[in-house]
Design goal:
Layout: E1 9-12, E2 15-19, E3 23-37, E4 41-48, E5 56-60, E6 64-71, E7 79-82, E8 108-114, E9 120-126, E10 136-142, E11 157-166, H1 171-180, E12 190-193, E13 210-212, E14 218-225, E15 231-236, E16 241-246, E17 249-256, E18 259-261, E19 266-272, E20 282-290, E21 303-308, H2 328-335, E22 356-367, E23 384-389, E24 392-394, H3 401-410, E25 445-447, E26 450-453, E27 458-465, E28 474-478, E29 483-490, E30 510-511, E31 513-516, E32 520-527, E33 532-538, H4 541-544, E34 549-554
Parallel strand pairs: 2-5, 3-6, 5-10, 11-14, 13-21, 22-27, 24-25, 26-34
Antiparallel strand pairs: 1-2, 3-4, 6-8, 7-9, 9-10, 11-12, 14-19, 15-18, 15-20, 16-17, 16-19, 20-21, 22-23, 27-32, 28-31, 28-33, 29-30, 29-32, 33-34
Length: about 575
């Protein structure tokens, strides 16, 4: 394992830490490995550095990391650094066919990962279909040298907690079989904490993750949701927790007994090991799924780990307070509490005015069955599943959008663009988005469409959930930016420009992934000051693979510091 300038490795129960300095070189070696989990089930998984989950990247605010990915696997893939804004550097953002072509088996590519104002917990993962189910790990961005955490008490230690999923069977084969007939991919067989399902799945002690703590000490829990398709409630028996950050930015402290976290999100949580209930020295931490979907199947089992005060683990206490999987009120109650820390040392800069307004509907749709010889499709009514933004199901091009866009800007001759620049700022056909019967809007159009945005524009995007198909909460992730969540509601958003919405423009949370509530809306704002090609998509893989995605292209500004960086000197992977 080549870790470049410096390596300090500590194999904890919660992961492999790669400790970095200001500018470093790291190697990710991808290859298949047989892993045993879920009551001694063995599967061949694609892993990074033979670690499941993968290695944790530890940097300080403002660092740069050069990460060489050697693909010794069986298929092409890319890696995305989720929540890292990559200022002016979309070349290393990672989404397949958006900013690069896949790294083919036997080939390598070096990502230049530029950290800017992020501080807290982020994560990295493969960005090629469902490959992220096993190719993922945490990113820890510590305060700049000499700075402290903005907490009343500095933590005595930390643990990294990554929520994930385990599938019995070779997942790539399962996904390809489902997509060929337009069907849903079967739910996972277990949720996991740091790769292990825990006692909730009737497995042995070897199948549970143990986090050791010292009585009286306070720990920073860095929680990542690498779950594929479900939001999760999380809590620890006998302990209250305090949420202090999300998506690499600090929040005003939220004392709570549980959190609700969506796929793609990260949360920083403080817990003090100060309980002694009926002599217990071991306590279960449990994550259980939350789904507000009306009919989509999902795995309702929980996953668990143990918070242990030292010594033998005996009869851990189980939490009795976690909400049930359909408790929308509990999910909303937690989500509404989030506000930015917004201090002099950690300021926010939410746009007070707007130059460009974009209104995007989110729908789960259908396409007519196109299989030959009367073969049946796997979606409702014999159709094929589809998903859309503004009734357009995004189609991946055969060459990546970024290179095509860049060479058309800089070269005297260039091939035709593999995309259209007419992604609509509003739905093509306005309708009652949350009405009971919207079946006439189920069949969408297909396209590879992008939205062009002038540099420096103050942008507001409203994501509107619809009652088409099977409505549910959709975690939307925007690459290249953190954005301010200024408003949220249930029902139809009022698009009348004269209507005054009750926005929070003082201390809205700054995040990179936001859950759009079922039959509701979310309003976000950001300044378009990071030029490049940036992907925007639902972080439920079952929707992303069927087209719930789009692309924002932020144009170059006038001076050099407002323009995209040129591509790497060694070139990009070939399609």
């Amino acid at each position: 394992m080549d870790l470049g300038l410096a390596f300090l490795g500590y194999l904890f129960l919660d992961g492999l830490f790669l400790c970095l300095a200001a500018e470093h070189e790291i190697t990710f070696d991808l290859r298949e490995k047989v892993v045993t989990s879920l009551c001694n089930k063995s599967e061949s998984l694609l892993l990074v550095n033979e670690s499941y989950p993968g290695p944790t990247l530890r940097v300080r605010k403002g660092d740069t990391a050069y990460i060489t990915v050697n693909n010794n696997g069986l298929y092409g893939l890319t890696v995305h650094w989720h929540g890292v804004k990559q200022p002016r550097n979309p070349w290393s953002d990672g989404p397949e066919y958006i900013t690069q072509c896949p790294i083919q088996p036997g080939n390598s590519f070096t990502y230049k990962v530029i950290f800017s104002d992020e501080e807290g917990t982020l994560w990295w993962h493969a960005h090629s279909d469902w490959t992220r189910a096993t190719v993922y790990g945490a990113i820890v961005v510590e305060p700049a040298e000499g700075k402290l955490y903005p907490f009343d008490k500095q933590p005595d230690g930390e643990h990294i907690i990554i929520l994930g999923e385990w599938y019995n069977g070779y997942l790539r084969t399962m996904v390809e079989a489902a997509m060929r007939i337009g069907a849903d991919v079967a739910p996972s067989d277990a949720y996991t904490i740091n790769g292990q399902p825990g006692f909730s799945n009737d497995c042995y002690i070897e199948n549970i993750t143990i986090f050791e703590v010292a009585r009286g000490s306070t720990y920073l829990l860095r929680i990542v949701s690498a779950v594929m398709n479900e939001e999760m409630f999380f809590g620890i028996a006998g302990h209250n927790i305090t949420v202090v950050g999300q998506d690499g930015a600090y929040l005003k402290p939220i004392p709570t007994s549980y959190i609700m976290i969506s796929p793609g999100q990260t949360m920083d949580v403080l817990v003090t090991a100060n309980n002694s209930i009926d002599g217990h020295t071991s306590y279960y931490m449990v994550a259980t799924p939350y789904s507000d979907s009306g009919g989509a199947p999902f795995n309702e089992k929980s996953t668990s780990a143990v918070l242990n005060y030292g010594g033998l683990i005996y009869n851990p206490l189980y939490p009795e307070f976690l909400p049930d999987p359909k408790n929308t009120e509990a999910a909303d109650a937690f989500t509404k509490q989030r506000k930015a820390l917004a201090t002099e040392e950690h300021p926010i800069d939410v746009p007070q005015e707007v130059d460009e307004r974009i209104f995007i509907t989110i729908s789960v749709n259908l396409l007519p069955c196109n299989l030959p010889d009367g073969e049946k499709c796997g979606g409702p009514g014999g159709n094929m599943h589809a998903s859309t933004l503004n009734n357009i199901s995004f189609q991946n091009p055969s060459v990546d959008i970024l290179q095509a866009y860049y060479w058309n800007l800089t070269a005297s001759t260039a091939p035709p663009l593999p995309f259209d620049t007419d992604f609509p700022a509003f739905p093509p056909v306005p309708f009652n988005y949350t009405a009971g019967d919207n079946a006439q809007y189920q069949f969408p159009s297909l396209g590879t469409k992008v939205r062009m945005i002038e540099y420096g524009q103050r942008v507001e995007i409203v994501f509107q959930g619809t009652n088409i198909g099977n409505p549910e909460n959709h975690p939307i992730h925007l690459h290249g930016y953190s954005f301010y969540v200024v408003g949220r509601g249930i029902g139809n958003f009022d698009t009348d420009p004269n209507y005054k919405h009750d926005y929070n423009l003082i201390d809205p949370p700054r995040v990179n992934t936001i859950g759009v509530p079922k039959n509701g809306w979310v309003a976000i704002r950001f300044k378009a000051d990071n030029p490049g090609v940036w992907f925007m998509h639902c972080h439920l893989e079952k929707h992303a693979i069927y087209g719930m995605a789009g692309v924002l292209i932020v144009k170059d500004g006038d001076n050099d510091q407002e323009k995209m960086l040129p591509p790497p000197k060694d070139g990009m992977p070939k399609c």
